[in-house]
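$ fold --in a.seq
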Amino acid sequence: MTTAPEIREPRSTTVTGRIDPSYKRSGGPKGSFEMAAWLFMRLSGIVLVVLIFGHLTVNLLVGKGVHGIDFGFVAGKWASPFWQFWDLAMLWLAMLHGTNGVRTIINDYAERDAVRFWLKMVLFAAAIVIVILGTLVIFTFDPCPQGVTTGLPDFCPAA
C-alpha cells in the first residue's frame, strides 16, 4: 500500500510558521499607507458605482438611448461644466482605483524587488499619461473650432 505524498507548506513559510528569510521583502513598515490605500479602494468604489450608473443612465436610458450617442451628444454634454466635472471625477477615480488595484497585484506576485519597482513605475507612468490626456480632452474639447468652415457638425454656426 502506498502513502500519499506529503503536502509541503507554502513557499513563504517554514514548518514553524515563520516567514522564510529568503522571501522577506526590503523596506520598512508601510501600514499607514496600505491602510489608506485599502480605505481609498472601498470609498472610491462606492463613489464610482454612483458615477458610472449616473453616466449609463444619462447616456443609455434618457433620450434616444444608445442610438442617440454621437459627436453632437458628447459635444452638448461637455458644453456643461457639470458633466465635464462628472466625467473628470469618473476618469480620475477609475484610474486611481484601477492603478491601486494593479499595484496591489504587483506587490503580491512580483517576487524580486527590481521587477516590482519597474512594473510599478510603468504602471504609474501609464496612469499619469492617461489621466493627463483624458483631462485635456474633457476641458479642451471644442466641437466648433474658430476659423474652420468645412467639415463641421450641423449645430456649429459656421456650418
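$ fold --in b.seq
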Amino acid sequence: MDEMKQVYKQPTSQEVIRQADHLALYDRYGSMAYGLILQIIPEPDLAQAVLVDLFTSPQLKSYAETPSQVAGEIIRLARNKALIAKPIHTTPSLSIPVSTTNDNTAKLVFDLSFCQGYTPEAIAEKLQLSRTNVLKSIYTYFKQLRSS
C-alpha cells in the first residue's frame, strides 16, 4: 500500500497554475493552431497528436507570461512541431511548372516555404526564380492575406 502512495504524487501549486495557463491558451488559440497544423499535416490523427504536444510543451509557460506576443509564438511553435512530425512520404516534389500566374506563384511559394518548410534558396532553385523573387512572392502573398 505504501508503494501506491509513492507512485501518486500531488501536483504542486506551480504545476496546477501551469496546467491552468496551458488550458487557457488552448481555449483561446487551440483552433487556430489546429488549423495551421492541418495545413501542414493533412492527417487528423497525427495533427491532433501534434496539437496535444504543442499545448503540453513546457515552452508555453513563457508565452503565457508575455500575452502581447502569444499568437505569433504559438503559430511559430505549431509550425515547427508540425514540420518535425510531418511524415516524409507526404512531402511533395518541387517539380512544379512555373507557367502559373503571379498570384498562383505567390501562393505556391508561400505554401512551399511556410507549410512545407523549404528554404527560399531551394524554392528559387526548383522554380527557377531568383531568391529575391521568392521573397517578393512571399511578401505579395502576405499583402493579399491582409487585404482579404
